[in-house]
């Protein structure tokens, strides 16, 4: 009997006009599909309309998709040595949806490849009771790291994505099993 696929929510974390995030997200979603252990749902912060004031209105469709996920991958650029405000707004709107689930990061940016954004996201997810995994994929100078076909020019990106997905699948299955055995004490 084969295991059901891990329900993976890929959160595209940039809403800027002219953003590079969709290129990275499309590539990563293809990697997750090829991996074979995941059913992928892409949520784009540019398409999520949540007001800054958290009054509970309009959050239900996003909440349902996040709640359904067994694991998350956040695609984030680095803006001013951190992550985008639109991404922070989506994170802050929800709490229980993230709890006791694994989170991985794919980042991009200038010289740091978005890794400073990732380091700022880790304590936010810790506060949300999510488990961030060690493996990441990052692209420094991202525009020059992808060809016209939307694929990375360096084959090492695929190797890094596979390592991330292998680890994420392990954590997703382990935490899913734990949530079934006992309720998470939030």
TrEMBL record:
Residue ranges of domain NADPH-dependent FMN reductase-like in the record: 7-143
Pfam families per UniProt: FMN_red
GO cellular component: cytosol
InterPro entries: Flavoprotein-like_sf, FMN_Rdtase-like_dom, NAD(P)H-dep_reductase
Gene Ontology molecular function: FMN binding; oxidoreductase activity
Source species, domain of life: Bacteria
Protein name: NAD(P)H-dependent FMN reductase
Organism: Amycolatopsis echigonensis
Organism ancestry: Bacteria, Bacillati, Actinomycetota, Actinomycetes, Pseudonocardiales
